[in-house]
């Protein structure tokens, strides 16, 4: 048995997983974001009925550096820059692993979802922002600082890109021109405002796109062009044969299908089967991915 937790900025989801990675006895509690003692107390109460020999594997909305154990997260300030793995191991009296939730999403899809049977899987997050995780032979590829798969960051959009309609916007990471600035749901809204001067929710924008609205079509065409360029590079570099998508935009099946066609037209490998596909386990990806983690 393994205990699993998915730590978000609003809630902590908790469950036990058996040898088949089936989830049971699920619990949910609000995340104490500003009080470290309260944060530890909630996890302790959730795990208290289980023997100390049962480990706890956690997916978190942030990164945990493997070499130091320190966690960095914007949404849960009480654990930011805290050696969370070591702290929880001591305070809970059980072995604890902490991994980024995008890596857990990718791992869940590689082992039980759309990527099952593929040696190299690149999980894509298209939610509020852009993220990802690379899985090779069932193991997440994680750098010393806890990072990996962050295809949404880097100065991908040039300062003089205005001619093709793509704004070079400042990113929260400190750079300008990252795909994260236009890639997620808020990003596509930002892109549409830049191109049309109109504010509209992503869901309504995509409905307009499907109905043939010219303004929405222009925005989505620009979005598909730049996002597919980034993902084609990821596919060529990693050799991933499947790219499951999670996050809110994963539910936009037509958009993901259009992105898949665009990406496959730009990669070196000829592939008839879909490459970019909606994930199969979006609701449980944090917990299921955490259950597959290994030291």
Automatic annotation (TrEMBL):
Protein name: N-acetylglucosamine kinase
Entries under InterPro entries matching the protein: ATPase_NBD, ROK, ROK_cs
Pfam (any one): ROK
Key word Glycosyltransferase present: no
CDD domains hit by this protein: ASKHA_NBD_ROK_NAGK
Organism: Novacetimonas hansenii (Komagataeibacter hansenii)
UniProt-listed PROSITE patterns: ROK
Lineage, highest ranks first: Bacteria, Pseudomonadati, Pseudomonadota, Alphaproteobacteria, Acetobacterales
UniProt GO MF annotations: kinase activity
Alphabetized UniProt keyword annotations: Kinase, Transferase
SUPFAM superfamilies: Actin-like ATPase domain
Keyword Nucleotide-binding annotated: no
């Amino acid at each position: 048995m393994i205990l699993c937790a998915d730590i978000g900025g609003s809630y902590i989801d908790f469950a036990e997983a058996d040898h088949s990675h089936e989830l049971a006895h699920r619990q949910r509690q609000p995340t104490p974001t500003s009080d470290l003692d309260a944060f530890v107390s909630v996890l302790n109460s959730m795990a208290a009925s289980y023997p100390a020999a049962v480990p706890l594997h956690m997916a978190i909305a942030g990164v945990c550096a493997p070499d130091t154990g320190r966690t960095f997260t914007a949404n849960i300030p009480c654990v930011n820059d805290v050696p969370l793995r070591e702290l929880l191991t001591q305070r809970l009296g059980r072995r604890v692993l902490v991994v980024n939730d995008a890596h857990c999403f990718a791992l869940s899809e590689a082992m039980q979802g759309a990527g099952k049977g593929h040696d190299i899987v690149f999980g894509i997050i298209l939610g509020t922002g852009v993220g990802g995780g690379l899985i090779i032979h069932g193991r997440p590829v994680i750098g010393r600082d806890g990072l990996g798969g962050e295809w949404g960051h880097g100065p991908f959009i040039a300062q003089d890109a205005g001619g093709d309609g793509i704004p070079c916007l400042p990113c929260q990471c400190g750079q300008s021109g990252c795909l994260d600035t236009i890639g997620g749901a808020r990003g596509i809204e930002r892109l549409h405002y830049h191109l049309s001067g109109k504010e509209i929710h992503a869901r309504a924008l995509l409905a307009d796109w499907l109905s043939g609205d010219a303004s929405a079509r222009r925005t989505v065409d620009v979005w598909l062009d730049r996002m597919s360029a980034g993902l084609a590079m990821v596919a060529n570099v990693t050799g991933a044969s499947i790219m499951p998508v999670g996050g809110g935009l994963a539910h936009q099946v037509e958009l993901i299908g259009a992105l898949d066609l665009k990406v496959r037209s730009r990669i070196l490998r000829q592939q008839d089967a879909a490459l970019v596909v909606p994930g199969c386990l979006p609701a449980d990806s944090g917990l299921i991915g955490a259950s597959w983690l290994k030291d």
